[in-house]
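> call design_seq(struct)
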């Protein structure tokens, strides 16, 4: 399989108790990048690293409280085996968790320059903390959150982070220019969300495409787009705009 010349192939390992949850990685942009050999995705079932008849992966939390915590032993064995499979690469262990630092475009950009991401998808109340402590002494560990809400497990976050990283790899998007105007793209879009976009027809259900976009005047179009990005960011993301959110959640 051919790989993009300057860039090393990105290897992505994902460990989960629901490997089927990761099936969308065969589709669309990530699926095509796999087929083209730009990325090497390997999905692992954590239960294959259990030692008991019931393939147990969790137990009750020390100190009491609700829910279950994932056992350190299966995680230790799974991650040892993955790390041991290629000593030549520099992995980042990504642990999705609502208690992590917020995952941003800056993480995606940094990880797209690396050569190996390993995702540890927790379920229940999370993974025994000693797993992150132990592997943090061996490799870089990033506990990241998609946002201020709680998912049932790390799988959806692993899909989201994988897609955010893979679309930044050289040669994955058809037009290499198209990431430049993304919301949060480094440069002038760093703290901005993208403004509205339009396509044909010019009039739809009584609604017109803004005239400037039909003008063919590139300078005016660029200026308009930037202005719209600022306006959207101000109204929808005052946190990015350096203004205090109103705190009014009524709408
Ligand atoms: N796992 C559960 N909730 C999550 C979140 N908000 N972000 C990342 N991983 C999670």
């Amino acid at each position: 399989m051919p790989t993009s010349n300057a860039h090393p192939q990105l290897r992505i390992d994902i460990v989960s108790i629901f490997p089927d949850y990761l099936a969308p990685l065969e589709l669309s942009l990530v699926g095509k990048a796999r087929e083209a050999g730009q990325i090497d995705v390997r999905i692992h079932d954590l239960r294959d690293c259990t030692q008991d008849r019931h393939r147990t992966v969790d137990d009750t939390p020390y100190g009491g409280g609700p829910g279950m915590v994932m056992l350190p032993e299966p995680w230790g064995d799974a991650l040892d085996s993955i790390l041991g499979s290629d000593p030549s690469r520099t992995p980042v262990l990504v642990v999705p968790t609502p208690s992590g630092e917020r995952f941003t475009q800056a993480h995606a950009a940094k990880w797209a320059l690396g050569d190996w991401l390993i995702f540890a998808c927790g379920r229940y109340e999370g993974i025994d903390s000693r797993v992150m402590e132990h592997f943090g002494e061996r490799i870089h560990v990033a506990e990241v959150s998609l946002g201020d809400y709680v998912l049932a497990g790390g799988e959806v976050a692993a899909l989201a982070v994988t897609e955010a990283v893979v679309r930044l790899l050289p040669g994955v998007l058809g037009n290499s220019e198209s990431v430049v105007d993304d919301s949060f793209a480094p440069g002038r879009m760093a703290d901005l969300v993208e403004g509205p976009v339009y396509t044909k027809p010019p009039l739809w259900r009584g609604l017109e495409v803004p005239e400037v976009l039909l003008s063919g005047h590139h300078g005016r179009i660029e200026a308009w787009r930037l202005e719209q990005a600022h306006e959207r960011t101000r109204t929808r993301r005052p946190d990015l705009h350096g203004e205090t959110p109103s705190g009014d959640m009524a709408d």
